[in-house]
């Protein structure tokens, strides 16, 4: 049965005792073309940082100083095919559009050490705000020719046991999750081959492949998007000043199999839930989360709670959905926000299989025509995702499967900020097909969410 990590916050290391030893810039190993890179309407609303940390056990042949040396050397070579990564975000003065100036200004590279061993850090799965210390968030201005910060910083942090962490902070305009995974695969391969072998996948940097049509044409209603109300675009999801509880809900592969059986038994379609293409691990987990989140509102503070409409958002990879399909190695953001919406009464009283179907229908809606319409909508309205909450899945990205010469990561995770409008899925260390669900909610809603979660898995 699904479990909840009850580790109290005070037991987490609040300070990893990090000492920064050196910070520098890494430049492309050879001259690259100076140019402006077009950013798609999907890219340009994602102008914010993404932080990930990758933990590695000690390896006698690859002590942290050697890892840092090889990593820095191969990054120099990789910044040639990934020339945009060494650039800077600019606003085009002629059209006001965000773009990347590919100017070889470099990326940041930091060396650091921790007073602790990796085992001292504790449960790597449990979201620890202190992991932010493993990220080089900004560079000192005396390293830069202007005030512009790099689009990517890398930090190698050694632990007393010989283990180490590699932390990345990248501007989301540079990569989505899938293209960042390919970047890591290419980086690992370049290190293993000493940089003399072609990359496993040559990056496709042509963002014009996702340019809007001329003239733009919106052929579908896009309830998952909202227009800007002024000239200053807000963040994709606003942070809240509320005090939030957070918990990690762990679903084992057995739990997920049970959810699939519940969906089949309680399906609403003619084939008892739609078969394997509908009843996937992601769909059943997301359906369970949606049910618990939608029904966690307090009846005392919500008028007519059964009539309240809940809208779930989640990302869909459009690479294989376009005609023709995008290259697998497309480096930009090739994801759109799918949605499912229903009254809380339907979510509470309807069969679980129907909730799963609604999640599936949201993704099925995203065809080539729908994706082109959404991109054109962004050209006209300059909008952003709009819903009650977003399920952000890092579950199947495969960061933990990247084969470095010193082995696969012991664990890879995003550095998370607790947000009630974002629920995060990330892989489990012990169960390859299991998933961990990070939920942040006000206390009373969290109590209700947890009760619903436990009760549904138990029934």
What would you say this structure looks like, in words?
With 459 residues, the protein is of the alpha+beta class. It contains ten helices and 18 strands. The strands form four sheets. Strands 1-11-18-17-15-12-13 form a seven-stranded mixed beta sheet. Helix 5 packs across helix 8 (352-364). The N and C termini lie close together (10 Å). Belongs to the plant acyltransferase family. Keywords: Transferase. It comes from Corchorus capsularis (Jute).
Q: What is the straight-line distance between the termini? A: 10 Å
The fourth-level CATH homologous superfamily of the largest domain is: Chloramphenicol acetyltransferase-like domain
Q: State the oligomer.
A: single chain
What's the SSE pattern? EEEHEHEEEHEEHEEHHEEHHHEEEEEH
Q: What's the CATH first level of the largest domain?
A: Alpha Beta
Which class do the helix and strand fractions yield?
Answer: alpha+beta
Strand numbers in spatial order across the main sheet: 1-11-18-17-15-12-13
Mean pLDDT across all amino acids: 90
Give the strand content.
15-25%
> In which range does the helix fraction lie?
25-40%
Stretches where pLDDT falls below 50 for ≥5 residues?
A: 233-239
Supply the CATH architecture of the largest domain: 2-Layer Sandwich
Q: Mind summarizing the main beta sheet?
A: 7 strands, mixed
Total count of strands: 18
- Total of DSSP H or I helical runs spanning 4+ residues: 10
Rg result: 23 Å
Q: Which descriptor suits the 3D outline?
A: globular
Number of domains as seen in the coordinates: 2
CATH topology of the largest domain: Chloramphenicol Acetyltransferase
